[in-house]
Amino acid sequence: MHLADLAGEDVVGKNLWDCYWFSHSTESQRVLRDAITRAAGGERVHFDAEVQIGMEQLISVDFHLAPIFDEKNRILELVASGVDITDRKRSEAAIQLLMREVVHRSKNLLGVVHAIARQTARGRDPAAFVGNFSDRLMALSASHD
After folding, report:
1. Burial category of 32 from C-beta neighbours within 10 Å (exposed 0-12, middle 13-18, buried 19 and up)
2. Cα–Cα distance between 11 and 18 in angstroms, integer?
3. SS3 per-residue string spanning 75-97
4. Where are the beta strands (DSSP E) in the chain?
5. CA atoms within 13 A on the CB side of 44
6. What are the C-alpha distances in Å from 142 to residues 106, 115, 138?
7. Cβ–Cβ < 8 Å for 51, 21
8. What is the C-alpha radius of gyration for the chain, rounded to an integer number of angstroms?
9. What is the per-residue pLDDT across 25-74, written as a single tens digit (0 to 9) for each?
10. Taking 90 as the threshold, does the pLDDT of residue 95 lie above it?
11. Which residues pair with 45 in a beta bridge?
């Protein structure tokens, strides 16, 4: 057992959710137990999980459980497999952070545009407003370059 430096006795005869990989979180254990129940009912199950490896380090895993059937359509065993997707999850988190920042800045910019419109409209006729507002928007645009 090279993942997490476990010996055979650390996993043999134990429920998978009680083994080192899932023992860090009762929620992870619950999700795995539910997935095993579904797979034992004949369903192929796929989910992302956080598993513990090494010195209590967590990685993200694309986890699959597949039932293996005999000729009478009875389940013989469940096959578990997982692929490390930690880098993908980190990239997704970084993208989400950037997207939140873009949304925040966009809202701030719209607030500035709203304030410019209100200030420009004060005491002006509609024709003058359009010209003045356009000039102010162009100046705002130039300031972002």
Report:
1. buried
2. 8
3. EEEEEEEEEECHHHHHHHHHHHH
4. 45-53, 57-69, 75-84
5. 5
6. 16, 17, 6
7. yes
8. 28
9. 899 999 999 999 999 999 999 999 999 887 778 999 999 999 999 999 99
10. yes
11. 65
**Size of the chain, expressed as the number of residues it contains:** 145
- HSE, side-chain direction, 13 A CA sphere, residue 95: 6
User: Helices 86-121 and 126-144 sit at what angle, rounded to 10 degrees?
Assistant: 150
pTM (2 decimals)? 0.65
The two tokens of residue 63 are: 């986890």
Instruction: Tell me the two tokens of residue 86.
Output: 């930690």
Separation CA 49–CA 57 (nearest Å): 13
List, edge to edge, every strand of the sheet that includes 75-84.
45-53, 57-69, 75-84
